Amino acid sequence: MTDDQLPKLSSASQVAEFLRQVDLTPRNQSQGRLVFALDATASRQPSWDQACHLQAEMFRETARLGGLAIQLAWYRGLGEFKASRWVSHSTDLLKAMSGVYCQGGLTQIERVLRHTLAETRQQPVTALVFIGDCVEENVDTLYSLAGELGLLNVPIFIFHEGHEAGAAKAFRRITHLSRGAYCAFDAGSAQQLRELLAAVAVYAAGGRRALRTLGQQKGGLTLSLTHQLVNQ
């Protein structure tokens, strides 16, 4: 499949397609461990603040499945990259996120991918979530690393804020190579982002069956999308 053949999604259909891709993604059978990576460069402060408010949804939706360990990873400024300890409670993740302020700099997605590979080699990571708006790196290197993660059964789920065409193309390719999924969202679509984060967290903790059960429990848009997913 070429880049041009990868799905180009819009509005509500992109959420349905995203969940369909999640349903098709191979899942590690080990305990759920999710790397939650964000771009913390200068333009990202509003989205960082939004993510702080929404991150609790990931823990809330996975509690009934035995929980999920999440590690926060972020980059900013001139080569600064950091990762938190693994946490299993919303308050701990919020504390880690609240101590970060965004600062100008170029993207460091390569370091996110290399870090996830290193973590996986120590103990399997179930999935990587990345939220960002642009790519300012050698994409061939990113594609190679994404392919390595795909071979290790670590899908990458990218939530792309905005409509930058070059970034969209790169993000779609990265997710395709890792057997993950891509979804664009606008800064104002907090409800959509909340549902997408919850969906990936539930997948990471409990697999496809748990994701379908989520739709039955939540109702509304999630139930409608889950019905579409099951009936594909």
What does this structure look like?
The protein is of the alpha/beta class. The protein is 52% helix and 16% strand. The chain contains nine helices and six strands. The chain has helices at 11-24, 45-54, 56-62, 90-98, 109-122, 139-151, 165-178, 190-218, 220-230; strands at residues 33-39, 69-76, 80-83, 127-132, 156-161, 181-185. Strands 3-2-1-4-5-6 form a six-stranded mixed β-sheet, with helices on both faces. A hairpin with a 3-residue loop joins strand 2 and strand 3.
Core attributes:
about 230 residues; alpha/beta; six-stranded mixed sheet; 9 helices; disordered C terminus
Strand neighbour order, sheet with most strands:
3-2-1-4-5-6
Beta-strand percent range: 15-25%
Order of helices and strands: HEHHEEHHEHEHEHH
Portion of residues in helices? Answer: 40-55%
Average pLDDT? 80
Structural class: alpha/beta
Question: Sheet bearing the most strands, described?
Answer: 6 strands, mixed
Instruction: Give a count of the beta strands, DSSP E runs of length 2 or more.
Output: 6
Q: Give the overall form.
A: globular
- Low-pLDDT ranges: 1-10, 224-232
Rg over CA atoms, rounded to whole Å, is 16 Å
Cα distance spanning the termini = 20 Å
User: In DSSP terms, counting alpha (H) and pi (I) runs of 4 or more, how many helices?
Assistant: 9
